[in-house]
Amino acid sequence: MLGLSWEDVDLENKVIHIRNGLKKDKEFSEDGKTIVRNFLTLGSLKTPKSRRDIPINDATANLLARYKLAQRSFINDPDIIPNMVFLNSAGHYWDESKVRVLYKNYLASIGVPYIKFHGLRHTFATRILESNVAPKVAQELLGHTNVSVTMDIYSHVLPEVKREAMDKIKGIV
């Protein structure tokens, strides 16, 4: 999410193209023994399947369009033209540890129990599979290398889905 650029957000066609990830990197001294600095940079994703297109609904597209218009007001330097969707107030990449703290504090402020941010991904996957979305579609949305990865992780969802499927065909069998 933190590696998402506005170039990857197609509001007209309502698609987000997942192309890059934000990575922590290090710069070393000339002798290679000492870390001179840590920094964030855009980099490739884990696997080729991680590169994917995710359709978005009208509400999400509208929210992103409004956010894009307002984004410059969140950045302290008026000369910065944001090319990334998520930048901090200095106009730089967000460090994931800072985002995690802000997220945790926000949940507490609205009285919602803490769930790890990655847990939202699991919730999404569970809900789409419970909604009888084809496992292959779930795999592609989640960016797993193959459908067996998706099913291995989310197989706990299947018993109820299987029961519903058998109920649908009860007149046939």
Task: Spell out the blueprint of helices and strands.
Elements: E1 9-10, E2 15-18, E3 21-28, E4 35-43, E5 52-55, H1 58-74, H2 96-109, H3 117-130, H4 135-142, H5 147-154, H6 158-168
Antiparallel strand pairs: 1-2, 2-5, 3-4
Helix pairs in contact: 4-5
Secondary-structure content class: alpha+beta
Number of domains: 2
Strand order of the largest sheet: 1-2-5
Nearest-integer average pLDDT: 88
CATH fold field value of the largest domain: hpI Integrase, Chain A
Named CATH architecture of the largest domain: Orthogonal Bundle
Q: How does this structure look, described?
A:
- There is one protein chain.
- The chain folds into 2 domains: 1-94, hpI Integrase, Chain A; 115-173, no CATH class.
- Helices cover 42% and strands 16% of the residues.
- A hairpin with a 4-residue loop joins strand 1 (9-10) and strand 2 (15-18).
- Strands 1-2-5 form a 3-stranded antiparallel beta sheet, with no helix packed on it. Strands 3-4 form a two-stranded antiparallel ribbon.
- The chain contains 6 helices and 5 strands; from the N terminus they run E-E-E-E-E-H-H-H-H-H-H.
- With 173 residues, the chain is an alpha+beta fold.
- The mean pLDDT is 88.
- 8% of the residues are buried.
- It has helices spanning 58-74, 96-109, 117-130, 135-142, 147-154, 158-168, and strands at residues 9-10, 15-18, 21-28, 35-43, 52-55.
- The N and C termini lie far apart (46 Å).
